[in-house]
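Posting for a labmate who doesn't have an account.
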Amino acid sequence: MNAVDITTGTVLSEELQSQIDNSLGRVDYAAGTLGAAVKSPFHLATIRFNALAASGQSGTTVRFASLENPRRSKSVTAGFDNTGSLGSITIIAE
């Protein structure tokens, strides 16, 4: 599976980073706002994937890099980390 593109959500007005590296299996995305704090939950971005072959029933897991330095997925408001829990999804391509 390859990531094809990233579409910015509507809440955060400033896109800081938007990069796909399929050879490393990574999507780097960062966005923010200089205005009022954003209330959660909110739609950050949409990532579109292209299946290169059928995945089988086990599928392909996509997860946030929540525990890997320096690649951390987090949400910060006024300098305070308010990320909460991050999940993962499994995509099955037939």
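Reply:
Got it, the structure tokens are right above this. The chain has a mean pLDDT of 85.
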